[in-house]
Design brief:
With about 425 residues, the protein is α+β, with helices and mostly antiparallel strands. It folds into 4 domains: about 100 residues, Reverse transcriptase/Diguanylate cyclase domain (Alpha-Beta Plaits), CATH 3.30.70; about 90 residues, MutS, DNA mismatch repair protein, domain I (3-Layer(aba) Sandwich); about 55 residues, 5' to 3' exonuclease, C-terminal subdomain (DNA polymerase, domain 1, Orthogonal Bundle); about 110 residues, Dna Ligase, domain 1. About 40% of the residues lie in helices and about 20% in strands. The chain contains 15 helices and 13 strands. A 5-stranded mixed beta sheet has the order 5-6-1-7-8, sandwiched between helices. Strand 5 and strand 6 form a beta hairpin. Helix 5 crosses helix 6, helix 11 packs across helix 12 and helix 13 packs across helix 14. It binds a DNA duplex (18 and 18 nucleotides) through helix 4, helix 9, strand 9, strand 11 and strand 12.
Length: about 425
DNA sequence: TCTGGGGTCCTAGGACCC
DNA sequence: TCTGGGGTCCTAGGACCC
């Protein structure tokens, strides 16, 4: 049986969810904007006394005159015509397309739809890997219909089931592995299906830019270009040893495999979080001394949020860290590992405060973040016992080392 | 008028142990 | 006294992804 892995990607997910709520915005340039807006209230709260689809167009806020640090999270196709898209600063976008409607990000709503479409998928094909709010991998191999027409029959079924349940469309790529499935899902956007067979790698993958490989970002792409390598085909023609010499053992071997479409990674059904963090960019750059009161308030707030996140999710952590971004956009991190687990806001605040003392604070700051890593499940007796056992062994080892060193130095007796 | 927020993984050096 | 090598943990930074 041929391994068939699907990558499913919701089409313009946030924007599509907003258009379900506000169908009157269909076809108009709409930008969904990050972060803080002057009022910080959601439209739906502003207009909760009305039926949402009857809110008149001129009641929606426009991009024109926007001030603030937000960026575009996503934009409708009508807005993209004006050259505005993901990650563009909203003030720049306001110049390019002042008439665009600006909606605040509503993660709670997107998560609702995210859960809904994933539930539809697992009902049909239970082996699903969560890749964020709008993306999943699915193992089609042993699912009824998963082998028919190379997976197209099952892909079509899932698309239809998602649309019936949510009104949203998605694009699906089916291939022998995750790497190729991810690339294939881009071939027929939106609302498309692409089947990619191993025999088609040369014809369909090699002409693509290296950047299309999931894992090659701007830096690696730049470095490849410096060596005259622009396409995946050119990358595939490089000698393995040459790639290892220039990119290191691990990355070099990975680049070689990826270019040849090789990827053995399994579908990951469940995973434990590694860290929990909160960070915020300020409306204006703040100075550690002059704006101390405000910074302190924000800092404590972040610690409390992280603690609340941990407690809500049922985790405790051992490594507390901070992140600072200076006015010049350079960032630094500091962290400290405790000798026991915690989710206590006061303990997190205290430790994060210690970290803050180890960082230069002359320059103004634009961002502050707090992170807790080294997580373990809270209140899970098994992990509790394991943690206690580890602590006991550590104490015993410390005592033994002490004794050993005393013996070495002849101080024990 | 630059450049969000929440993550994961990798690397590399140093400490410390065996 | 000098030398070595593997393993693990901690810390800082950075690339990358959604």
């Amino acid at each position: 049986m041929i391994r068939r892995i699907a990558h499913l990607d919701m089409d313009a997910f946030y924007a599509s969810v907003e258009l379900l709520r506000y169908p009157q915005l269909q076809g108009l340039p709409v930008v969904i904007g990050g972060g803080r807006r002057p009022d910080d209230e959601t439209l739906s709260q502003n207009f909760e006394h009305q039926s949402l689809n009857r809110i008149p167009l001129d009641a929606f806020p426009r991009l024109a005159g926007y001030t603030g640090r937000g960026v575009i999270t996503t934009a409708t196709y009508a807005a993209r015509q004006f050259g505005v898209g993901s990650a563009l600063g909203l003030m720049k976008a306001a110049k390019l397309c002042p008439q665009a409607i600006l909606l605040p990000v509503d993660f709670a709503e997107y998560r609702k739809y995210s859960r809904a479409f994933k539930a539809v998928i697992t009902d049909i094909a239970p082996l699903m890997e969560d890749r964020g709010v709008d993306e999943v991998y699915i193992d089609f191999t042993h699912v009824p219909g998963g082998q028919r027409e190379g997976g197209r029959v099952l892909a079509r079924l899932i698309q239809k089931a998602i649309f019936d349940a949510t009104g949203l469309t998605c694009s699906v790529g089916v291939a022998p592995n995750k790497l190729l499935a991810k690339m294939a899902s881009e071939f027929n956007k939106p609302n498309g299906i692409a089947i990619l067979h191993e025999s088609e790698i040369e014809a369909k993958i090699w002409p693509l830019a290296c950047r299309k490989i999931n894992g090659i970002g701007p830096k690696a792409d730049e470095k490849l270009k410096k060596h005259g390598i622009e396409t995946i085909g050119q990358l595939a023609s490089q000698d393995l040893q040459w790639l290892i010499d220039h990119f290191g053992q691990k990355t070099g071997a990975w680049l070689h495999d990826a270019a040849h479409g090789r990827d053995e990674r399994a579908i990951v059904l469940e995973s434990e979080p590694v860290s929990v963090s909160r960070e915020t960019s300020f409306d204006r750059d703040l100075h550690a001394v002059r704006d101390k009161a405000e910074l302190t308030r924000i800092f404590t707030g972040l610690c409390e949020q992280v603690a609340a996140d941990l407690q809500r999710k049922g985790y405790v952590g051992k490594t507390i860290g901070i992140k600072l971004r200076y006015a010049d956009f350079k960032s630094v991190t500091r962290d400290q590992t405790l000798d026991s687990y915690t989710a206590d806001p006061k303990r997190i605040r205290h430790t994060a405060g210690q970290c803050l003392k180890r960082v230069p604070l002359e320059q103004r700051l634009r961002l502050l973040g707090v992170r807790v890593g080294n997580l373990a499940k809270a209140g899970n007796p098994e992990s509790y016992i394991r943690n206690m056992a580890v602590a006991q062994i550590e104490r015993a080892r410390a005592a033994t080392n002490l004794i050993a060193s005393d013996v070495r130095e002849g101080q024990l007796f």
